[in-house]
Specification:
CATH superfamily of the largest domain in chain A: Winged helix-like DNA-binding domain superfamily/Winged helix DNA-binding domain
Strand order of the largest sheet of chain A: 4-3-5
Radius of gyration of chain A: 19 Å
CATH topology of the largest domain in chain A: Arc Repressor Mutant, subunit A
Number of helices of chain A: 6
Shape of chain A: globular
Number of strands of chain A: 5
Structural class of chain A: alpha+beta
Order of helices and strands of chain A: HHHHEEEEHHE
Largest interface: A-B, 71 and 71 residues
Oligomer: homodimer
CATH class of the largest domain in chain A: Mainly Alpha
DNA sequence: CTACATGCAAAGGGTTTGCACGACA
DNA sequence: TGTCGTGCAAACCCTTTGCATGTAG
């Protein structure tokens, strides 16, 4: 699950390069946070990244971790599981359907697709646990959030 | 987006029937919360369900809404967007991949599938906004949470 | 009648913010 | 050296919990 050493170095290089291009200062803290998330095989929350980095940078604070993660997210260098900055939301539609999710504002729209409904789980995934359903998540920007909408 | 009237009634019937079967009392509040979420075309959060129900049941409290929603979720009568009870989690893997998500504990594991990578967005969805990527979410229970693991 | 559900209010936990100090460029 | 980033602590918001009262079965 953890990336190979060379893949890890490639990711870190990319972080540094893109941060520099974006005019973001490469502080000791930011570099260590990048290293931590680049090397994480699972999908850590802010707290566990904080703990990992604190082993190397004892004075780091949790809010710096948050601020750095949102920066990386803005630049598209990392992703979130689920929808960023969102409270829990409920879906009363129990029929099989799929979602278009705006990664900026969190708007989620249902859609139906017989092709997607037919998807089969790869055999390797069946060893992960009991599969309940397969849902396709189309991620992007909704019309309100897409840059072209804003003249 | 909102369900047709007969589909709405069917959903409400199902809620009542399943709640009764589960031995959950059909209080005025619960029935109105069911009606609210059954009729919601979008994916409301607890607060907006609360507001909708409060128009008809002015004395209802937000915690009752939460408690009812978790009950409905336990019974599989509704779903959540994203992972229930979860804090925000980050993904340093920017390569195209897919997720197996445990809906109970929130564990999320990556997997790769060339078939899934090739999925094409239905044309109707392209009118929703700008598509960034397509990710398949396999939902189920991980080995730790699956009932059979617990003897 | 009795067990379970509700409303209230206060606690809890994750995330954000204002401000003065510190460090990259 | 100037500007941006950091650490601290308090604020903020969503969600949960304890307890006395109310109500469905």
């Amino acid at each position: 699950m953890k990336p190979e050493t060379d893949e890890l170095e490639r990711r870190i290089q990319r972080f540094e390069c893109e941060l520099r291009q974006a005019g973001v200062k490469l502080t000791h803290q930011r570099l260590e946070i990048c290293r931590e998330i680049a090397g994480a095989g699972d999908h850590p929350d802010a707290e566990s990244i904080f703990k990992g980095v604190r082993a190397r940078v004892p004075t780091i604070s949790l809010d710096t971790v948050y601020r750095t993660l949102w920066t990386l997210l803005d630049l598209g260098l990392i992703n979130t599981l689920g929808i960023p900055q969102e409270r829990m939301r409920f879906d009363g539609n129990t029929a099989l359907h799929h979602h278009f999710v705006c990664t900026r504002c969190g708007e989620a729209r249902d859609f139906y697709s017989e092709d997607f409904d037919k998807l089969q789980v790869p055999t390797c995934v069946q060893t992960y646990g009991v599969v309940n359903k397969i849902q396709v998540e189309v991620r992007g920007l909704c019309l309100r959030c897409a840059p072209t909408t804003d003249p």
